[in-house]
Queue: 2 jobs
Job 1
Amino acid sequence: MRKNKKIILSEKEMPKQWYNIVADLPGTLNPPLGPDGKPIGPEMLAPVFPMNLIEQEVSTERWIDIPEKVMEMLSIWRPAPMVRAYALEEALGTPARIYYKNESVSPAGSHKPNTAVAQAYYNREFGIRKLTTETGAGQWGSALAFACSLLGMECKVFMVRVSFDQKPFRKMMMQTWGGTCIASPSNETQAGRDVLAKYPDTPGSLGIAISEAVEAAVTDETGQTRYSLGSVLNHVMLHQTIIGLEAKKQLEKAGEKLPDVLIGCAGGGSNFAGLSFPFIQDKIHGAEIDVIAVEPKSCPTLTQAPFAYDHGDIAKMTPLLAMNSLGHGFIPPPIHAGGLRYHGMSPLVSHAVKEGLVRPEAIHQLECYEAGLLFSRTEGIIPAPETTHAIASTIRQAKLAKEEGKEKVILFNFSGHGLMDLVGYEKFLNGELKDIKLATKDFEQFTAVLKNHPSPVV
Ligand SMILES: Cc1ncc(COP(=O)(O)O)c(C=O)c1O
């Protein structure tokens, strides 16, 4: 007899604390550096972030309580279901048991609201009335607009031009939640005007949009505006760990022990970290889990780019972070997985790769869309282009389990649905998409800037 397809937790079973992997990571973590090459103090971040979030950013406490108001907002869609992908298993004829954590059930359609509601809450507690941010695919911008609407705050989103044109419905979602959304680069900031003067037809990049959003926050004279980042930083990884903490309870309910393979796509690293960090705690203590972070071949941050100090944005407004980076001036090829086109990577995820706790993998977009179609036609939900990277890797692992005749447990993060990303599917179905490999000369040109920065401890 079949077990349940969905493994559901009650609201009472929702984790009440986030897990901070900083308390357990082996090796030396490299601190963020200021323009003088010295570690920055919390006060240097104060014009950009509220102090209560800065405290979380630098915290070494293993467990951090989730405030009651944040629990209340999370409970709009959490706990998120874990689902056994029986139909996908059957289509692949694999002995592997495949589970996915369905983060697409949030109001904005992805994992991004997990940190959006927390960040908006801490900002409001600190007396902030308005948040600015960037967005790639539009998932993060809509998540923050949603969170701000729950707390009566203003929200302004700089959306990467290419996605702004490809995904008009994302802008409408942000507006419906009361936010404003403009295409980046824009004429509203010095950073945007500088880029437009040099490259009037640029498709934009997350690095440019971050510069615009930071500038818009720090130049607001009321002092009541701050910037909010949807990935990369430690406090964002922290807020996302609710995914993995729920997943642990759900695997136990399903009668499983730890997974053999854990998979997430990685843009800035947050959905991957959210699912994997609570399990990496077990791996640090001896558990054997193959933890895979999947990225596009056209933006090979973890598989090809060096571990170096770099800025998070093109105008160098952010501190230098120790991370895998393709260079802050990187203009990615216009593949459809907008959220995976970032030049950098979470310092914590980069560190975990460096320590051998995470294995990175790069996959071309056609294999990912193929995987997205198979998933849609078996499990029913149309995945976001970013999520298809995790699915493509899952399929590779399920086929491997078949070859090896092993009953592996594979768990992946279904980071978001693709209902606003159908133009990409249309192009794929019409045969208009192709695989794009990053040219060696472009790679060398973009990463050349890294040589001017201090070297991190490896
Ligand atoms: C659905 C979805 N998955 C994954 C990502 C990648 O971001 P991260 O690596 O921070 O999870 C994004 C980013 O926009 C996204 O929208």
Note: The longest helix spans residues 385-404.
Job 2
Amino acid sequence: MTKSETIRICSILDIPDDEPLAVELKNGNKLAVYRIDDEYFVTSNVCTHGNALLSEGWQEGDVIECPFHGGAFFIKTGEPAEYPCVKAIKSYAVTIEDDSIFISLSEAENAEPDSF
Ligand code: FES
């Protein structure tokens, strides 16, 4: 992936310890950016069970707990980790360059709009 095919979404320095960073794309899609040890992950910020922002929930290791209803997702894959969440959140491929986090432009543009 060349740099022109990606968009910068934030600096790794923007991400708090043990807490996701909320980022909104120009197309309105809401993302959550996570640090786990020294790795970085990006998912949709919107819970698939309801209209909750995962960045307002609680990060426990590689799991993000939704602030509503006790549901949770695995951050590295987007797969549901706890009921009542049964549908995965979108997970984005990440590249890092010069302390910045990039995701694929086509992936960002072609992602289904979030419902929140
Ligand atoms: S809205 Fe997230 S678990 Fe219900």
Note: Residues 5 and 106 are 7 Å apart (CA to CA).
